[in-house]
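Q: Hi! Curious about what NIPSNAP domain-containing protein looks like structurally. Here's the sequence.
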Amino acid sequence: MLYLEYTFKPTEHAHAHQAEFWRWMSEREPWFYADFRMVRGTSWRMESSGTRPLIHHLVEFDDTNSIAEYRAAVAAKAKEDPLWEKKRMEQDLWYEIIGRSVQTSSLADLGFQR
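A: Let's find out. The predicted structure is below.
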């Protein structure tokens, strides 16, 4: 498995309208990923950072070909469907993507638990 990780920082608007932000986030994920069958799953983690948390989003793939297929599919859909792209770009109102990375493995149990 490979994981494409995005790190988001909520905007001031999101911070000022938290209930609306979380509602938008929960509605966006199923809408956004509906047509991307190469995505095996998603997960989320929050990190406290001052007054606004950082949000880490992991998107799971089988291999590098699946990540390339995903990126191409997003670009094609954005180009072919202006209404979809307009809705996708609502993200700029809610968060800033401050980091992207590819993780090559999931969490490992090393036996250090107490």
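A: A fun detail: The radius of gyration is 16 Å.
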